[in-house]
Protein backbone atom coordinates (compact mmCIF):
# COMPACT_ATOMS: atom_id res chain seq x y z
CA UNK A 1 0.00 0.00 0.00
CA UNK A 2 2.96 2.30 0.71
CA UNK A 3 4.17 1.55 -2.82
CA UNK A 4 0.83 2.62 -4.29
CA UNK A 5 1.04 5.97 -2.48
CA UNK A 6 4.61 6.51 -3.66
CA UNK A 7 3.80 5.53 -7.24
CA UNK A 8 0.40 7.20 -7.74
CA UNK A 9 0.15 9.89 -5.05
CA UNK A 10 -1.49 10.70 -1.73
CA UNK A 11 -5.12 10.22 -2.75
CA UNK A 12 -4.27 6.87 -4.29
CA UNK A 13 -2.60 5.93 -1.01
CA UNK A 14 -5.82 6.72 0.85
CA UNK A 15 -7.80 4.50 -1.52
CA UNK A 16 -5.28 1.71 -1.02
CA UNK A 17 -5.55 2.07 2.76
CA UNK A 18 -9.36 1.91 2.57
CA UNK A 19 -9.09 -1.22 0.42
CA UNK A 20 -6.71 -2.86 2.88
CA UNK A 21 -8.96 -2.00 5.84
CA UNK A 22 -11.99 -3.41 4.04
CA UNK A 23 -10.23 -6.72 3.43
CA UNK A 24 -8.94 -6.83 7.01
CA UNK A 25 -12.37 -6.14 8.50
CA UNK A 26 -14.12 -8.73 6.37
CA UNK A 27 -11.41 -11.31 7.04
CA UNK A 28 -11.55 -10.67 10.79
CA UNK A 29 -15.33 -10.97 10.82
CA UNK A 30 -15.15 -14.24 8.90
CA UNK A 31 -12.46 -15.69 11.19
CA UNK A 32 -14.37 -14.63 14.31
CA UNK A 33 -17.52 -16.44 13.15
CA UNK A 34 -15.90 -19.54 11.65
CA UNK A 35 -15.25 -21.22 14.98
CA UNK A 36 -18.87 -21.26 16.06
CA UNK A 37 -21.58 -23.66 14.94
CA UNK A 38 -23.74 -20.75 13.87
CA UNK A 39 -20.79 -19.35 11.91
CA UNK A 40 -20.29 -22.60 10.06
CA UNK A 41 -23.98 -22.77 9.25
CA UNK A 42 -23.91 -19.16 8.14
CA UNK A 43 -20.92 -19.38 5.78
CA UNK A 44 -23.11 -18.49 2.82
CA UNK A 45 -24.27 -15.29 4.49
CA UNK A 46 -20.65 -14.38 5.21
CA UNK A 47 -19.76 -14.81 1.54
CA UNK A 48 -22.81 -12.77 0.54
CA UNK A 49 -21.56 -9.99 2.84
CA UNK A 50 -18.15 -10.14 1.16
CA UNK A 51 -19.74 -9.91 -2.29
CA UNK A 52 -21.82 -6.90 -1.32
CA UNK A 53 -19.00 -5.03 0.42
CA UNK A 54 -16.44 -5.62 -2.34
CA UNK A 55 -18.95 -4.72 -5.05
CA UNK A 56 -19.92 -1.47 -3.31
CA UNK A 57 -16.33 -0.49 -2.59
CA UNK A 58 -15.08 -0.74 -6.16
CA UNK A 59 -18.23 0.68 -7.74
CA UNK A 60 -17.31 4.00 -6.11
CA UNK A 61 -14.39 4.37 -8.50
CA UNK A 62 -14.70 6.27 -11.77
CA UNK A 63 -15.56 4.57 -15.04
CA UNK A 64 -13.28 5.71 -17.85
CA UNK A 65 -12.36 4.16 -21.19
CA UNK A 66 -8.90 2.65 -21.66
CA UNK A 67 -8.05 4.88 -24.60
CA UNK A 68 -8.53 7.97 -22.41
CA UNK A 69 -6.84 6.64 -19.27
CA UNK A 70 -4.08 4.43 -20.67
CA UNK A 71 -3.75 5.65 -24.25
CA UNK A 72 -4.47 2.23 -25.77
CA UNK A 73 -7.69 0.64 -26.94
CA UNK A 74 -7.78 -2.28 -24.50
CA UNK A 75 -5.79 -2.47 -21.26
CA UNK A 76 -6.51 -4.84 -18.37
CA UNK A 77 -5.26 -3.16 -15.19
CA UNK A 78 -4.19 -5.14 -12.15
CA UNK A 79 -6.06 -4.24 -8.92
CA UNK A 80 -3.25 -2.02 -7.61
CA UNK A 81 -3.27 -0.01 -10.85
CA UNK A 82 -7.06 0.35 -10.70
CA UNK A 83 -6.85 1.60 -7.10
CA UNK A 84 -3.87 3.80 -7.96
CA UNK A 85 -5.47 5.38 -11.02
CA UNK A 86 -8.83 5.80 -9.26
CA UNK A 87 -10.77 4.49 -12.23
CA UNK A 88 -10.95 2.15 -15.16
CA UNK A 89 -13.32 0.28 -17.43
CA UNK A 90 -15.44 -2.83 -16.86
CA UNK A 91 -12.52 -5.27 -17.00
CA UNK A 92 -10.68 -3.32 -14.31
CA UNK A 93 -13.71 -3.24 -11.99
CA UNK A 94 -14.21 -6.98 -12.46
CA UNK A 95 -10.56 -8.00 -12.05
CA UNK A 96 -10.23 -5.98 -8.83
CA UNK A 97 -13.39 -7.57 -7.40
CA UNK A 98 -12.25 -11.05 -8.39
CA UNK A 99 -8.84 -10.71 -6.74
CA UNK A 100 -10.35 -9.13 -3.62
CA UNK A 101 -12.79 -12.00 -3.18
CA UNK A 102 -9.95 -14.49 -3.58
CA UNK A 103 -8.02 -12.61 -0.89
CA UNK A 104 -11.07 -12.95 1.37
CA UNK A 105 -11.03 -16.72 1.03
CA UNK A 106 -13.74 -17.20 -1.57
CA UNK A 107 -12.76 -20.30 -3.52
CA UNK A 108 -11.67 -19.75 -7.11
CA UNK A 109 -14.06 -22.51 -8.23
CA UNK A 110 -16.96 -20.26 -7.15
CA UNK A 111 -15.77 -17.28 -9.19
CA UNK A 112 -15.63 -16.43 -12.87
CA UNK A 113 -14.94 -13.35 -14.91
CA UNK A 114 -17.65 -13.28 -17.57
CA UNK A 115 -17.35 -11.53 -20.93
CA UNK A 116 -20.84 -10.52 -22.04
CA UNK A 117 -22.68 -8.45 -24.60
CA UNK A 118 -24.63 -5.67 -22.91
CA UNK A 119 -27.81 -5.23 -24.93
CA UNK A 120 -28.71 -2.00 -23.14
CA UNK A 121 -25.34 -0.42 -24.01
CA UNK A 122 -24.87 -2.30 -27.29
CA UNK A 123 -21.28 -3.10 -26.41
CA UNK A 124 -19.14 -5.81 -24.86
CA UNK A 125 -18.83 -5.79 -21.10
CA UNK A 126 -17.35 -7.80 -18.21
CA UNK A 127 -18.85 -8.84 -14.87
CA UNK A 128 -17.94 -11.18 -12.00
CA UNK A 129 -20.05 -14.31 -11.51
CA UNK A 130 -20.28 -16.01 -8.12
CA UNK A 131 -21.56 -19.60 -7.91
CA UNK A 132 -22.68 -20.47 -4.35
CA UNK A 133 -22.93 -24.09 -5.52
CA UNK A 134 -21.58 -25.68 -8.71
CA UNK A 135 -25.06 -26.19 -10.17
CA UNK A 136 -26.47 -22.83 -9.05
CA UNK A 137 -27.42 -19.85 -11.17
CA UNK A 138 -24.59 -17.38 -10.51
CA UNK A 139 -24.90 -13.99 -8.86
CA UNK A 140 -23.45 -11.14 -10.93
CA UNK A 141 -21.30 -8.27 -9.65
CA UNK A 142 -21.48 -5.40 -12.11
CA UNK A 143 -20.27 -1.81 -12.21
CA UNK A 144 -23.23 -0.70 -14.35
CA UNK A 145 -26.01 -2.19 -12.22
CA UNK A 146 -24.79 -1.97 -8.64
CA UNK A 147 -27.36 -4.42 -7.29
CA UNK A 148 -26.10 -8.00 -7.12
CA UNK A 149 -28.60 -10.14 -9.03
CA UNK A 150 -28.90 -13.72 -10.31
CA UNK A 151 -27.90 -14.05 -13.96
CA UNK A 152 -31.51 -14.97 -14.78
CA UNK A 153 -32.51 -11.46 -13.65
CA UNK A 154 -30.13 -9.82 -16.10
CA UNK A 155 -31.71 -10.40 -19.53
CA UNK A 156 -29.72 -7.39 -20.78
CA UNK A 157 -26.49 -9.41 -20.58
CA UNK A 158 -25.70 -12.12 -23.13
CA UNK A 159 -22.81 -14.31 -21.90
CA UNK A 160 -20.07 -15.16 -24.39
CA UNK A 161 -17.26 -16.77 -22.42
CA UNK A 162 -16.04 -16.92 -18.84
CA UNK A 163 -12.83 -17.82 -17.03
CA UNK A 164 -11.15 -17.96 -13.65
CA UNK A 165 -7.68 -18.84 -12.41
CA UNK A 166 -7.59 -22.16 -14.21
CA UNK A 167 -10.44 -22.74 -16.67
CA UNK A 168 -12.15 -21.21 -19.68
CA UNK A 169 -15.81 -21.76 -20.59
CA UNK A 170 -17.85 -20.94 -23.67
CA UNK A 171 -21.22 -19.70 -22.46
CA UNK A 172 -24.36 -21.06 -24.09
CA UNK A 173 -26.71 -20.29 -21.23
CA UNK A 174 -27.04 -18.18 -18.07
CA UNK A 175 -25.46 -20.88 -15.93
CA UNK A 176 -22.44 -23.11 -16.35
CA UNK A 177 -21.35 -23.00 -19.98
CA UNK A 178 -19.22 -25.54 -21.82
CA UNK A 179 -15.66 -26.12 -20.63
CA UNK A 180 -13.32 -25.01 -23.42
CA UNK A 181 -9.89 -25.56 -21.94
CA UNK A 182 -7.36 -23.75 -19.82
CA UNK A 183 -7.61 -20.06 -18.97
CA UNK A 184 -4.02 -19.66 -20.18
CA UNK A 185 -5.48 -19.40 -23.70
CA UNK A 186 -6.36 -15.79 -22.85
CA UNK A 187 -3.22 -13.72 -23.33
CA UNK A 188 -4.60 -10.59 -21.62
CA UNK A 189 -5.55 -12.65 -18.57
CA UNK A 190 -2.11 -14.29 -18.51
CA UNK A 191 -0.50 -10.85 -18.45
CA UNK A 192 -2.75 -9.66 -15.61
CA UNK A 193 -1.92 -12.71 -13.50
CA UNK A 194 1.81 -12.33 -14.14
CA UNK A 195 1.88 -8.61 -13.42
CA UNK A 196 -0.25 -9.06 -10.28
CA UNK A 197 2.22 -11.62 -8.97
CA UNK A 198 5.18 -9.38 -9.83
CA UNK A 199 3.48 -6.19 -8.58
CA UNK A 200 4.23 -4.60 -11.95
CA UNK A 201 2.53 -1.17 -11.79
CA UNK A 202 2.17 1.22 -14.71
CA UNK A 203 1.08 4.84 -14.77
CA UNK A 204 -1.92 6.04 -16.79
CA UNK A 205 -1.46 8.93 -19.20
CA UNK A 206 -3.82 11.18 -17.21
CA UNK A 207 -4.20 11.76 -13.47
CA UNK A 208 -7.81 11.46 -12.32
CA UNK A 209 -6.87 12.90 -8.92
CA UNK A 210 -5.89 16.30 -10.31
UniProtKB/TrEMBL annotation:
Pfam families: Peptidase_C93 (PF06035). InterPro entries: Transglutaminase-like_Cys_pept. Keywords: Nucleotidyltransferase, Transferase. One of its GO terms (molecular function) is nucleotidyltransferase activity. PANTHER family: BLR5470 PROTEIN, PTHR39327. This is Sulfate adenylyltransferase. It comes from Photobacterium jeanii.
